[in-house]
Amino acid sequence: MNVRRVVPAAAAAALLALGYGAMGAVATAAGPAAHRAATHRATVYTVRAKIETGAMDHRDGPAMVPGSVRLPAHALVRMIIVSYDDGPAPAPGHTAIQGVVGGRILVDGRAVTKVAPSTIAHTFTVPALGLNVPIPAAPKGGSVTVAFTFHTGRAGTYAWQCYAECGDGPTGWGYPMTTEDMMRGNVVVR
User: Fold this and answer.
1) 3-class secondary structure, 5
2) Beta strands 120-126 and 131-136: pairing type?
3) 150 neighbors 69 (Cβ within 8 angstroms)
4) Cβ(112)–Cβ(105) under 8 Å?
5) How would you write the pLDDT of the chain (190 residues) with one tens digit per residue?
6) Whole-angstrom Cα distance, residue 172 to residue 81?
7) How many angstroms separate the CA atoms of 9 and 171, rounded?
8) Which residues contact 20 (CB under 8 A, 6 or more apart)?
């Protein structure tokens, strides 16, 4: 995954642009000087990834590219996932948005607090971080962009998994669901 450190002055603006008012609430309560100080201290790390289909990556199934990422401990991370997969898949028990700043994600620039279960194609789920983000199916021949912000927490290696049944076999849990760097990988926090 492509990780980029955002310049501190842009961090609070990026959060506010995403609709996350936490920094704005601090600024209102504490005044402009406190807001400027908080803005300069804040650093947001941006991670960009894409979900390719089997036809795109010449594998036999969808894959998150790249499949693993390294991030600093106790960091604020803005993740942007562009998915090209247009096939919905059941995601029992993993349809709720959890663990994201502000309790909402952006889907193609629109803030949402839920994704209809019948439209989910994949999830980006990191159980140890309490993070679950359902990713809707893309329109045929197009893409969907999902953006969200979360906190990494303490150092460790945290497995992520897609919990939408998008793999082979009768249960949907076969290849690519069981293959590292396809529909599963790691968030390595140092």
Assistant:
1) strand
2) antiparallel
3) no
4) yes
5) 555 544 343 444 444 444 433 322 222 233 444 433 443 346 899 999 999 987 776 567 899 998 999 999 999 999 999 999 998 999 999 999 999 999 999 999 999 999 999 999 999 999 999 999 999 999 999 999 999 999 999 999 999 999 999 988 889 888 888 888 899 999 999 9
6) 22
7) 47
8) 101, 102, 149
110 Cβ contact list (under 8 Å, min separation 6): none
Residue 178 half-sphere exposure toward CB, CA atoms < 13 A: 7
Give the gyration radius of the chain's Cα atoms: 17
Q: In whole angstroms, what is the distance from residue 40 CA to residue 141 CA?
A: 41
Q: DSSP states of 49-110 as a string?
A: EEEE-HHHHTSSS-EEES--EEE-TT-EEEEEEEE--------TT--S-BS-GGG-EEETTE
Q: With 0-12 CB in 10 A as exposed, 13-18 as middle and 19+ as buried, what is 75?
A: middle
Q: Which residue has the tokens 């926090």?
A: 189
